[in-house]
């Protein structure tokens, strides 16, 4: 009975989206309590949250279950004012709680005090933060001596270096932490959404969410990039939304977070989604399309140590069963035995399959041949790892591994890098496809996230439930259906027609997953855009000319995204934009120096701030302060004890240990393994039915694009 009542409550909640969404808040205070008053967008109900201010070190929160009208809420506030000697004082207007945090003294509440709308998806507004505030909870009369200690103030200052006004975004009613396809195929709500890998304030909100058993008062922050623009083709306008979601797992800065940890999480893991739709009147069906791609660090145990003397610091790879030490000007390579069964690599790709389904296509852009081996060491080991993982996979689920030395080809003036990348993109798109659906007017009026239960009618409109049943309990993303079939209910005219589903993902990487990767992701986005517009009926044929104004508009969006992601991870704007070789220009050299300065002098503090914000490090009295410990790069067992938790725990099982293993080392030869590679154009692709009957032929310079 309890489960049935929960299902009915969930259905009722979905059909009345405004019934459980608070969007604007006012904070009041007395000597003994804070009172947070929240209301919905339409001013139809008010709720009250009371926070105790007389407890100096603990967090006590009480939620009033009553839903007040405006007049009832005003009357209640008046009674509180009259019942307190010092009255009730207004503190601030706010737009959601980011979370609560404690260092060595009191708890603090993080609030969004100003916001700005940056886009609208299916009628749901998406916001960025323009101002935030950190407010201590206890009244000044009961605060402990620790509240104003030197270390406490330093922790507060450190946390504030995580600038919430840069690159964080949220929505009250649209789940921006999930792709459009996942929102429709797996419409989760509440606590589950906060536990996804793209919600950066999961730790900060964990206490209040677990205590209240709801997410009414908090907002889920996604970190990365969001841009929505209006573009046009002859005679028609459409909206393009570009979203980048950065994973909170194994998060950090360029030289302090490299490769993979032992849980299979990689550094610089970013999901990019491109949503295209045409604005139409509310009484007309709305057609939506989406395509998702991924970038992430090479999933091996490798690192580069920060150096204030070398612009290119040491690279260390621990997967290889060899000892290989090359001393060069500016850098050296030390490769030691580590994870010779590639368990972490396997876990990483298992995670990708769980998120996106099969197939997984890997586009590896690092250098193939070098006079002095550097990137090519990782390239050879990555190929070996994929071959090893593929041995245990059925043929239809094996990883598709594409190598292409983009730098080498860019030096050939007769080669158009974007043309080759576009053909690779079409090859991938032909296999994974993209997501396309049509929403009936009645569904639009209720909101996107209310497409919870649909039936297939005589016209062929698919329900989410029946769509999953047709896939033996899984959707096209490989997500199993967690709901009991008995919970499905027909919901009147709430119907959506799913026309195409994306299955699988293109994963792109270079060394940093910044510059070269961004160029490749633009090429994939352009190829997908042609098919998205064709699906919308805005283009007669999918290909978009590289020299067209539309391609230029899309390039600008991807350039902005590339600069944003590069600043977050590398400390400077992206090198490679329209020219892959732009790093050799004056501006490219300046960016190299800027990135070097940021990595050498600022990354350690930036990493510490991220670790505190994400809850990987939690200060404790009597334990060493964060800045008294080794840098984040040099993890050793027990150096931070119990201060570290979660993905970044300092233990042997975490994978952040980047020093060499003490295990015996087997000596072997590092080879290119060129003979085992063959052009992916030679593969038998007759089984890949997708956007076209055959995979487009790709002409590559010196056949450096290869398929494993």
UniProtKB/TrEMBL annotation:
Q: Which reaction does it catalyse?
A: a 1,2-diacyl-sn-glycero-3-phospho-(1D-myo-inositol-3,5-bisphosphate) + H2O = a 1,2-diacyl-sn-glycero-3-phospho-(1D-myo-inositol-3-phosphate) + phosphate
PROSITE patterns per UniProt: SAC
Q: What is its main location?
A: membrane
State the annotated membrane topology for this chain.
Peripheral membrane protein
Q: Which GO terms describe its biological process?
A: phosphatidylinositol dephosphorylation
Keywords (A to Z) from UniProt:
Hydrolase, Membrane, Vacuole
Residue ranges spanning the membrane: these are none
According to the record's subunit comment, the protein's assembly and interactions are:
Component of the PI(3,5)P2 regulatory complex at least composed of ATG18, SAC/FIG4, FAB1 and VAC14.
Protein name listed in UniProt? SAC domain-containing protein
Q: Which organism does this sequence originate in?
A: Escallonia herrerae
């Amino acid at each position: 009975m309890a489960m049935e009542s929960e299902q009915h409550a969930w259905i009722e909640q979905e059909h009345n989206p405004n019934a459980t969404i608070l969007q604007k808040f006012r904070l009041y205070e007395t000597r003994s309590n804070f009172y947070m008053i929240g209301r919905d967008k339409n001013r139809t109900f008010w709720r009250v949250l009371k926070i105790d201010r007389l407890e100096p070190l603990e967090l006590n929160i009480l939620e009033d279950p009553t839903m007040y009208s405006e007049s009832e809420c005003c009357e209640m506030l008046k009674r509180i004012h009259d019942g307190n000697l010092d009255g009730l004082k207004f503190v601030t207007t706010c737009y959601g709680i980011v979370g609560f945090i404690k260092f060595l003294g009191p708890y603090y509440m993080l609030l969004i005090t100003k916001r700005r709308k940056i886009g609208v998806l299916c009628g749901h507004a998406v916001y960025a933060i323009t101002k935030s505030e950190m407010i201590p909870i206890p009244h000044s009369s009961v605060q402990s001596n620790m509240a104003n200690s030197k270390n406490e103030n330093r922790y507060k200052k450190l946390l504030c270096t995580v600038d919430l006004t840069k690159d964080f975004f949220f929505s009250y009613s649209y789940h921006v932490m999930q792709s459009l396809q996942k929102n429709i195929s797996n419409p989760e709500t509440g606590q589950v959404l906060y536990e996804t890998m793209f919600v950066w304030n999961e730790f900060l909100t964990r206490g209040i969410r677990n205590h209240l058993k709801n997410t009414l008062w908090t907002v889920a922050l996604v970190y990365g990039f969001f841009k929505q623009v209006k573009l046009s083709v002859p005679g028609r306008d459409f909206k393009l939304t570009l979203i980048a979601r950065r994973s909170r797992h194994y998060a950090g800065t360029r030289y302090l977070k490299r490769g993979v940890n032992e849980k299979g999480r990689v550094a610089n893991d970013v999901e990019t989604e491109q949503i295209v739709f045409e604005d139409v009147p509310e009484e007309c069906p709305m057609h939506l399309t989406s395509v998702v791609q991924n970038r992430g660090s090479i999933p091996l145990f490798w690192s580069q140590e920060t150096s204030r003397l070398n612009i290119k610091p040491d690279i260390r790879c621990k997967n290889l069963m060899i000892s290989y030490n090359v001393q060069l000007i500016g850098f050296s390579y030390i490769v030691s035995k580590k994870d010779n069964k590639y368990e972490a690599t396997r876990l990483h790709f298992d995670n990708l399959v769980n998120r996106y389904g099969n197939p997984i296509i890997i586009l590896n852009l690092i250098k193939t041949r070098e006079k002095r081996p550097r990137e090519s060491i990782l390239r050879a080991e990555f190929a070996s790892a994929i071959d090893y993982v593929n041995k245990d996979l059925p043929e239809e689920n094996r990883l598709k591994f594409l190598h292409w030395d983009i730098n080498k080809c860019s030096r050939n003036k007769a080669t158009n890098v974007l043309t080759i990348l576009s053909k690779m993109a079409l090859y991938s798109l032909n296999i994974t496809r993209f997501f396309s659906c049509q929403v009936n007017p009645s569904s639009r009026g209720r909101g996107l996230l209310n497409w919870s239960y649909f039936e297939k009618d005589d016209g062929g409109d698919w329900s989410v439930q029946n769509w999953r049943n047709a896939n033996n309990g899984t959707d096209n993303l490989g997500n199993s259906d967690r709901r009991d079939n008995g919970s499905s209910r027909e919901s009147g005219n709430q119907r959506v027609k799913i026309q195409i589903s994306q299955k699988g993902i293109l994963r792109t990487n270079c060394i940093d997953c910044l510059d070269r990767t961004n160029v490749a992701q633009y090429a994939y986005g352009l190829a997908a855009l042609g098919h998205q517009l064709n699906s919308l009926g805005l283009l007669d044929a999918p290909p978009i000319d590289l020299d067209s104004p539309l391609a230029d508009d899309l390039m600008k969006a991807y350039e902005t995204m590339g600069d944003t992601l590069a600043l977050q991870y590398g400390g400077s704007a992206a090198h490679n934009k329209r020219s892959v070789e732009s790093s050799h220009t004056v501006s490219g050299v300046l960016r190299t120096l800027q990135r070097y300065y940021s990595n050498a002098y600022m990354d350690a503090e930036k990493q510490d701030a991220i670790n505190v914000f994400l809850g990987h490090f939690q200060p404790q009295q009597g334990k060493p302060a964060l800045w008294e410990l080794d840098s984040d790069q040099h993890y050793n067992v027990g150096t931070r004890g119990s201060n570290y938790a979660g993905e970044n725990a300092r233990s042997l099982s975490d994978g952040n240990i980047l020093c060499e293993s003490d295990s015996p080392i087997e000596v072997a030869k590092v080879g290119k393994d060129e003979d085992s590679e063959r052009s992916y154009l030679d593969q038998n692709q007759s089984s890949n039915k997708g956007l076209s009957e055959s995979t487009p032929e790709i002409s590559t310079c010196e056949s450096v694009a290869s398929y494993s």
